[in-house]
Automatic annotation (TrEMBL):
This is NADH:ubiquinone reductase (non-electrogenic). Belongs to the NADH dehydrogenase family. The lineage of its organism: Bacteria, Candidatus Eiseniibacteriota. PANTHER family: EXTERNAL NADH-UBIQUINONE OXIDOREDUCTASE 1, MITOCHONDRIAL-RELATED, NADH DEHYDROGENASE. It comes from Eiseniibacteriota bacterium. Keywords: FAD, Flavoprotein, NAD, Oxidoreductase.
Length: 457
């Protein structure tokens, strides 16, 4: 019998589990000719990105090579970007004009940053979605401390060390918590000219509380935790326009920030947004109980499945499954099982999933979590957070590496080496930005002046 062509787009939380399920079953491997396509050749463990951004976990330790997985599971993998999906012709167009036909398609391409058409947002803020975003963020923070150390006035230091995070959801809060811990407890003691009052971290959130997805008592706990550490919270504040280094709010005020990070939301990638399918307000594709995409009339499209962050699966209470890694994993496992059972001529019950809860890391030694309805916060919650993510890491090697990172971070001094070239981290405008003049370097900009004092800048 000729094998059926199964094409999996995206090797993230959802796609990886579809591929692994097929690879683990001899019968499924004999039935399906499976091809996994991802624009990267690695899987990235997003929940640990904030930890990477402050150097608590090493960059490479949260990525896992998809090619290794494919080799061990006897499936094919290519690194390429899907640019168009033709549902009529049953083929996918790739970045280099390669056309890949399929019999069954699993779309699991995750999400991209949503700027909600706020003018200047994309140009003047930094996203926080990928391992590269996290890596550059860390390098930038350390580099700005190096510049602030050489600045001549308090105003200059304050300008350089003003960090603003737009979006007070889980990601924004985790980034702010890790950042404030890093700058105050690890970097500050190493930079004698920088004072605590020179640093500012601000979260701008449109809602009336941070982490709207968490229970209100946890939002209040995290709010107190951050404010105690000096984070400024601007709640009920919508960013309406962003200029270089300045955010305009709906109430007419502005907030200055040398580094502005945008964590306000996500949407499906363009390759999914273009599809003639039924979708909900946030752009996710409506799927039925078997994760099949629904057409605009609400009819399932045979053999086209959508899962993970780009899928909207209706729950019994009438709401949609949240776009979380645990939802993506559950969907990936369900579709994997469906396809394995299909190879055996059997079917599976419909998809049902109840999230176990949530875990929000607040930097070293603190977290809030809710697991199976039980809330917890503080040090024990942090230990559970670390243990839960260790267990979820893909492969023993990554588990060992991340485990050692956590231990080292607890016991040893923070490594503040910054190995990237300053030009890789700061824009030309930032390097040339005039921050005022001081008595010793009259007329020269801090960035460019400090730059001239180092090799390789
Ligand atoms: C900073 C951060 C922190 C997070 N923290 C948490 C957390 O603590 N808990 C939690 O539950 N969730 C968290 N999430 C959300 C979680 O990561 C997502 O819900 C989850 O990754 C969704 O899985 P997915 O498989 O749909 O997409 P992803 O895991 O994002 O995988 C999508 C894959 O598709 C690939 N791809 C994209 N476009 C294309 C294309 N056109 N062609 C080919 N390949 C493509 C990508 O390279 C990627 O490998 C976090 C996300 C971020 C960004």
């Amino acid at each position: 019998m000729e094998k059926k062509r199964l094409l999996i787009l995206g090797g993230g939380f959802a796609g990886l589990d579809v591929a692994r399920s097929i690879g683990n079953s001899k019968q499924a491997r004999a039935y399906w000719d499976t091809l996994l396509i991802d624009k990267e050749n690695f899987f990235q463990f997003n929940p640990l990105l904030p930890a990477v951004a402050v150097g608590a976990v090493e960059t490479r330790h949260i990525v896992y090579p998809l090619r290794d997985m494919a080799r061990h599971r006897h499936i094919r993998f290519i690194k390429n970007k899907a640019t168009k999906i033709d549902l009529e012709r049953r083929e996918v167009l790739l970045h280099n004009d390669l056309v890949v036909p399929y019999d069954t398609l699993a779309i699991a391409v995750g999400s991209v940053t949503n700027y909600y058409d706020v003018p200047g947002a994309q140009e003047n803020t930094r996203p926080f979605k990928t391992i590269v975003d996290a890596m550059y963020f860390r390098a930038r923070v350390v580099e700005l401390f190096e510049m602030a150390e050489q600045a001549e006035t308090e105003d200059q230091r304050k300008k350089l060390l003003a960090f603003v995070i737009v979006g007070g959801g889980v990601t924004g809060v985790e980034v702010a918590a890790e950042l404030i811990d890093m700058v105050q407890n690890r970097l500050l003691p190493k930079y004698p000219n920088v004072r605590r009052t020179d640093i500012s971290v601000t979260i701008i959130e449109v809602g009336d509380r941070i982490i709207p997805a968490a229970r209100p008592s946890h939002s209040a706990y995290v709010q107190r935790f951050l404010v105690r550490r000096g984070v400024r919270l601007l709640l009920g504040s919508a960013a309406t326009r962003i200029e270089p280094k300045r955010i305009h709010l709906k109430n007419g005020t502005t907030v200055e920030g040398f580094t502005i990070v945008w964590t306000a939301g996500v949407r499906p990638p363009d390759v999914v947004a273009q599809l003639p399918l039924m979708r909900i307000k946030d752009g996710r594709v409506r799927v039925d109980d078997y994760l099949r995409a629904l057409d605009p009339a609400g009819k399932p499209v045979e053999n086209v499945f959508v899962l993970g962050d780009c899928a909207a699966s209706l729950r019994q209470d009438g709401t949609y499954q949240p776009a979380l890694s645990q939802t993506a994993i559950a969907m990936g496992l369900h579709l994997g099982k469906q396809l394995v059972e299909r190879a055996k001529g059997r079917s599976v019950p419909p998809f049902q999933f109840k999230p176990a809860g949530y875990i929000i890391s607040l930097g070293k030694n603190s977290s809030v979590l809710e697991l199976f309805g039980i809330p917890l916060s503080g040090r024990l919650a942090w230990l559970l957070w670390a243990a839960a993510y260790l267990i979820k890491m893909v492969g023993l090697r990554k588990q060992i590496e991340v485990g050692i990172d956590h231990l080292t971070h607890l016991l040893a001094e923070h490594d503040s080496s910054q190995i990237l070239n300053r030009r890789q981290i700061l824009s030309d405008e930032e390097l040339n930005l005039s921050l005022g003049t001081g008595p010793h370097r009259r007329g020269e900009a801090v960035g460019s002046t400090a730059g001239k004092s180092q090799d390789g800048v």
